[in-house]
C-alpha cells in the first residue's frame, strides 16, 4: 500500500526560477512540490529533479488567432517568463497543440537550460524540432514507453483521448498522458483527455498517488469549431474515486474564455460534497502545493494518500 501523505497549500509562494537549495532540516522537505502555470502546465520539484509539464508561457496563440472568432486572449497574465527558468532537468509535452507544445516557450527554455531533455510523443518529434527544440535534446515516447530518470525516478507514457484515441500514419499516439515516479510518489498527468475504454486499467496498474486532470469539459459548439474537449469536472471526480487515486487536482481552466469553467461554481460544487474532502481540489494560481510524508507512529501501518489541505 502506498505511504500516506499530507498536502499543504501555501498561497503566495512564487514559482522558483532556479533549483532550490536543500533545507537544513531534511525531515521538513516535501516529497513533491508543484506550482500551477495555467492551462495544463505545472512545475514539479521532487526526486532532486525540476520538471515542467505542458508549459504555455507565451501569447503565441493570441498572435496566431488574432482577428478570428476565438482570438485566444489570455484571461490571466503569464505567471513566469520562460527565459527566467533555470536548472530544468526535463520538459514534458503531451501533444502537439500549441498550448502544450508552445513555439513561444520551448525555444527559450532550451536556450536557458542546455542540459534539459524534452520528452514529446513520437508522433510530434518533427513538430517539436520545427518549434525550436534542439533535436539532440528530444526523447520521444509512445504509449507504453518508459524513460529512466535515475535515482528511482521514471516517466511512462500512456494513451490519451482528446477526444479520440488518434494515431498518426505510423501508428503512434497523437496524444499522451504521463505517469511519473518522482520523489517516491506516482503522479499521473493525463494531458488533454476524456474517459476512454482501458484508461482505468492503465491507472489501476500504475497506482497513482496524485492525478492532474483537465476539467474544462466539452460540448457540441466547441467540437464544431475544432476545439477538442476534456474531462468534465464530474468525470474527473469519478475517475479519482473509482480507480482509486489518492488526490485529484483539476486544471485547464481560466486561460481562454471560450474553453473554461467557472471556478467559483466548481468550488461550490466540491464544497457541497463532503465525500470529496481531501480527494479532489481545483488548482489555484500563485500557490505552492507541497506533499509531505505522514508520521505513521510505531505501528508502521500505512494508509492511502489523505490529500488533506492545510
Q: In words, what does this structure look like?
A:
The protein is of the alpha/beta class. It has one domain (5-19, 30-293): Metallo-beta-lactamase, Chain A (4-Layer Sandwich), CATH 3.60.15. It has helices at 60-64, 106-112, 125-130, 199-206, 220-224, 233-242, 263-271, and strands spanning 5-11, 32-38, 41-46, 49-53, 90-92, 117-121, 138-141, 146-150, 153-159, 176-182, 185-189, 210-214, 247-251, 280-282, 287-293. The chain has an 8-stranded mixed beta sheet with strand order 1-15-2-3-4-5-6-7. The chain has a 7-stranded mixed beta sheet with strand order 8-9-10-11-12-13-14, covered by helices on one side. The protein is globular. The two termini are 24 Å apart.
Strand content: 25-35%
Number of domains: 1
What's the order of the H and E elements?
Answer: EEEEHEHEHEEEEEHEHHEHEE
Q: In terms of structural class, how would the helical and strand content be classed?
A: alpha/beta
CATH architecture: 4-Layer Sandwich
> Unreliable runs, pLDDT <50, ≥5 residues?
296-310
Shape annotation: globular
Q: Predict the CATH topology.
A: Metallo-beta-lactamase, Chain A
Order of strands side by side in the largest beta sheet? 1-15-2-3-4-5-6-7
How many runs of DSSP E, i.e. beta strands? 15
The named CATH superfamily? Ribonuclease Z/Hydroxyacylglutathione hydrolase-like
Largest sheet, if any? 8 strands, mixed
CATH C-level class is: Alpha Beta
Distance between the termini: 24 Å
Determine Rg (CA atoms, Å): 18 Å
Helical coverage, percent range: 10-25%
Tally of alpha and pi helices: 7
Amino acid at each position: 500500500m502506498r505511504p500516506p501523505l499530507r498536502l499543504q497549500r501555501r498561497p503566495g509562494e512564487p514559482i522558483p526560477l532556479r533549483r532550490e537549495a536543500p533545507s537544513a532540516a531534511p525531515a521538513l522537505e516535501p516529497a513533491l512540490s508543484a506550482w500551477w502555470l495555467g492551462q495544463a502546465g505545472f512545475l514539479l520539484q521532487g526526486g532532486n529533479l525540476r520538471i515542467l509539464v505542458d508549459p504555455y508561457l507565451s501569447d503565441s496563440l493570441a498572435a496566431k488567432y488574432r482577428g478570428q472568432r476565438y482570438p485566444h486572449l489570455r484571461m490571466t497574465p503569464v505567471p513566469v517568463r520562460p527565459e527566467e527558468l533555470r536548472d530544468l532537468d526535463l520538459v514534458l509535452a503531451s501533444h502537439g497543440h500549441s498550448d502544450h507544445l508552445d513555439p513561444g516557450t520551448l525555444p527559450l527554455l532550451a536556450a536557458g537550460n542546455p542540459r534539459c531533455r524534452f520528452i514529446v510523443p513520437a508522433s510530434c518529434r518533427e513538430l517539436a524540432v520545427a518549434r525550436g527544440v534542439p533535436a539532440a535534446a528530444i526523447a520521444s515516447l509512445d504509449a507504453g514507453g518508459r524513460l529512466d530518470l535515475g535515482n528511482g525516478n521514471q516517466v511512462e507514457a500512456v494513451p490519451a483521448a482528446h477526444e479520440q484515441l488518434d494515431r498518426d500514419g505510423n501508428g503512434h499516439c497523437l496524444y499522451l498522458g504521463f505517469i511519473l515516479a518522482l520523489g517516491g510518489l506516482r503522479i499521473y498527468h493525463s494531458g488533454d483527455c476524456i474517459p476512454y475504454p482501458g484508461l482505468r486499467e492503465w491507472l489501476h496498474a500504475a497506482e497513482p498517488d496524485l492525478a492532474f486532470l483537465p476539467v474544462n469539459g466539452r460540448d457540441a459548439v466547441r467540437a464544431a469549431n475544432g476545439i477538442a474537449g476534456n474531462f468534465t469536472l464530474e468525470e474527473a471526480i469519478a475517475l479519482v474515486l473509482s480507480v482509486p487515486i489518492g488526490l485529484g487536482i483539476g486544471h485547464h481552466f481560466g486561460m481562454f474564455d471560450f474553453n473554461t469553467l467557472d471556478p467559483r461554481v466548481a468550488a461550490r460544487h466540491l464544497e457541497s460534497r463532503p465525500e470529496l474532502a481531501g480527494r479532489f481540489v481545483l488548482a489555484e494560481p500563485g500557490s505552492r502545493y507541497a506533499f509531505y510524508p505522514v508520521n505513521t507512529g510505531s505501528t508502521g501501518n500505512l494508509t492511502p494518500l489523505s490529500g488533506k489541505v492545510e
